[in-house]
Give the backbone structure.
Amino acid sequence: MINTLSQKWSLDAIFSNGSDSEELHSFLVTLEEKITSLTGKIEGENGPQSDNEIPNWLPLLNKVQTVSAELFEVNEFVECLQAQDVTDEKANTLSNRVYAVNAMFDTLNTYFDQQLQTIPETTWKLLLKQEEVKAIAFPLQEKRENAKEKLPVEQEALINDLSINGYHAWDNLYNATLGKLKIPFETEGEIKKLSPGQAYHLLVSTNERNERKALAEGFKTALKEVSEVSAAALNNIGGFRLQVYKHRGWSTESILKEPLQINRLTDNTLDTMWNVINQNKPVLLSYLKRKAELLGLEKLSWYDISASVGESTKKYTYEEAAEMIVANFSTFGSELAETARKAFEESWIDCEDRDTKAPGGFAARFPLTKESRVFMNFHGSPESIATLAHELGHVFHQGIISKSVPPFSQTYAMAVGETASTFAENIVADANIKNARDKREKLSLLDTKIQPAITYFMGIQSRFEFEKKFYEERKKKSLSTEELTELMLEAEKYAFNDSLESYNEYGWISTRHFYMTDKPFYNFPYTFGFLFSQGIYAMAKKEGHSFEEKYIELLKDTGRMSAETLALKHLGIDLTKPDFWTSAIDGIRADIKEFLAITE
């Protein structure tokens, strides 16, 4: 049995004393010195020019790897500090400092990548065959090829330097603005001011439509108040990115060039995935139509999609949820179950509902301590348990990566990063449905399981379409708040086949991912990861316990090959063909078919 558990995480194993950490301060000072020293050694210098120079160059390679892992540790820690308390001004100050260190490392990385280009081809081939390099051969080759498409090193360094108070500053402004946003909501004759996270949880969990509608209106009112500053941030982030692309000579390339490179995907794979999803829209629409009928509506509005149907009134304690997750994970494999148990017992999870917490959820990876941390709010519902299982899937993946491969091969693309999380969520969802007490509870659990498909196939698609259109228009001019709102509305109508009564047209403000400066198009990878995982999960159900070993080997390789190569090597499938994607959707089709049958 799992005993009483803390619902607040402990970060002291990483750096003690939070945002007042002297340990972190010293670590940052040393890290800055290391980056400065390495930059001085690499700037303007060639890589090994002959085979006999390789041994003397390898220590430099290892130092760059080590620094990258140290910076990753700091980035994740500061993100945790900001998330656990949005009022922590010291954490915000730390974030600004870490942004500067990241810019320093970006410059170092630029010089290093340029140095890789100077290595003669024959020496390069021998380098990749070195025993200590084999495990990072793919990311090294990737860095060398990507560097060829960038500007001369001095210009890339200048871009990194200017981005601190320009590009990244707009991201910081957006975060600060949204972090202080309050959503008005009237309850029991009193107007309460909710954080976006609290308001969104209430919106997706309440069974009262008038409350959902009021919260949606509250969101709209609050978001409109920050629309001008949000539009300025989005236009300037987009404009900066496009100018960089222009100077790199990418103006005639697809706007998806960089995000596809980052996610190690081809456009053929992405197009095939979206085409298969679009072909399966009718079954999704049949679910939405039936759900509207069950809620007594002619059509759903955007805020009705997550409304519960059926009945699952049982609330679970955190300890019960932990027991359930560990037990269900053990039906798949012992290593997954043990990872979850450790996370619960060693206080890796912050799930307490506090009004000073940032909205959303994530799993943070710490490559030096080889631990993870989970951030979310736990409310005792099946949905909360699903979210918890999802994040623990990330933790499992992170643990395998941190313990098995060198730092350069630990950086896996987001497209495959959602695989383990969705896989873990499916294990728990199916177990809950199987053990449902009656028809109404089964209906509720089925509905909960189907909803992510609506999110990833339609909700995420609307964001993908918005971002594509935004960059097309941003090449011509800055967009007004009205134009951005209209773009969002058009994208949502397209993704949902114009099937909703009303839409979240201010989603361009509330969608954090549009403003992230490190990753453009932080949307389609979610859909890829979800559907890729569905296909893998179907295979796992057929093979049983023996699949865990194959699964772990697949996860180990996520940072050192493309998605297409990963799928071919470990699963024997071609992602550019529709067959796998169609089979991956079969499970969702089956769930919707059962949902429709129960509600006939």
The mean pLDDT is 94. The first helix runs from residue 22 to 42.
